[in-house]
Structures are given as C-alpha cells and as structure tokens.
Amino acid sequence: MQKLFFITKRCDGCQACEVACLEKHSQSQSIFMTKMEQPSPQPRIKVKKSGSHYWATVCQHCTDSMCVRACMTGAMQYSLTGEVSHNTNKCVGCWMCIMVCPLGAITTLNEAKKASKCDLCKDEMTPPCAASCSRQALFYGTPEEYEMKVAGD
C-alpha cells in the first residue's frame, strides 16, 4: 500500500502542501476562489513548527486504526486496498475519531460539523501535496520505496 511519508529535515515550512491540498479539496479547484466558498475548504495536511524543525501532520492510514475502531457509524473504514477512508455521509460529527487519533491527523470540517482526513487523492497519480513540495519533504510510495529514498540522505 502506498502512503505519504514526511522527511523532516527536508521541510522548510513553506506550506505549499497545505495550499495544494486546500485547492484540491475546494469546490472551485482554484486557490483564488476558495475564500468565497461555503463551506470553506480545509487542508487535510497541516505543517507545524517544533523547535527549529517543521512537521507535517497527515493521516498515516494505520493498519490497526484507532479511528476505525472508535467510529460508531462506520464512517471510518478500510478501503479494499487497505487505506483508511472516511464517508462524510455516514459521519454524525461525534468526533470520536479525532479524540483517539494519536497523530492528530483528523480534523473538523467546521461548517459541516463532521470529521475530515487525508484521502490520498486517489484520483491522482501523486497526491497534490507531495507534487507541490519543491524540497521533496513529502514522499508518496510504499514503505520499501521510502526506505530506499532516504537511505542516501
């Protein structure tokens, strides 16, 4: 299963990944029009600073996911390929998934009062957040590919 990996020492905190995610999940698919949208789109990845380093918080699509176990409606579930998916229509906004996620990767869609998380933009070859990262701090691939990628760092 492919997933997003974050390489801390490469990140300079530019937040291009957040902007790309925001644009992708907006109705207009335009960063310039997102301010006028209701409900306002929100990125599913967050860049935060810790000391002198940056850290991206994004769903890791855990194999034994606490959010899936905590979801009382089945809105959080495993896809056929193993990723953790979220069905907004089934979500009742209890936010149990948010409370149990050890990574803080599930956020609230404020106006909708429902949970939101990374969906890996499955309709794209590479998620826009990873494609937008000029420093290659986000890597989309398998764990084995990730290990080979960072072996030379």
3D architecture notes:
By secondary structure, the protein is an alpha+beta fold. The chain has two domains: 94 residues, Alpha-Beta Plaits, CATH 3.30.70; 42 residues, Alpha-Beta Plaits. 21% of the residues lie in helices and 20% in strands. It has five helices and eight strands; from the N terminus they run βαββαββαββαβα. A hairpin with a 5-residue loop joins β4 and β5. The longest helix is centred in the first third of the chain and has 9 residues. The two termini are 23 Å apart.
Protein traits:
Alpha-Beta Plaits, alpha+beta, about 150 residues, two-stranded antiparallel sheet, globular
Q: In the CATH hierarchy, what is the class of the largest domain?
A: Alpha Beta
User: CA-to-CA gap between the ends?
Assistant: 23 Å
- Summed up, the domain count is 2
Globally, the shape reads globular
Radius of gyration, taken over Cα atoms and rounded to an integer in Å: 15 Å
What topology, given as strand order, has the largest sheet?
A: 1-8
CATH-level-2 architecture of the largest domain: 2-Layer Sandwich
* Portion in beta strands: 15-25%
Helix count, DSSP H or I runs of 4 or more residues = 5
The share of residues in helices is 10-25%
CATH topology of the largest domain: Alpha-Beta Plaits
Mean pLDDT, as a whole number? 93
Characterize the main sheet.
2 strands, antiparallel
Secondary-structure class: alpha+beta
What is the H-and-E element order?
EHEEHEEHEEHEH
Low-confidence stretches: none
Number of strands: 8
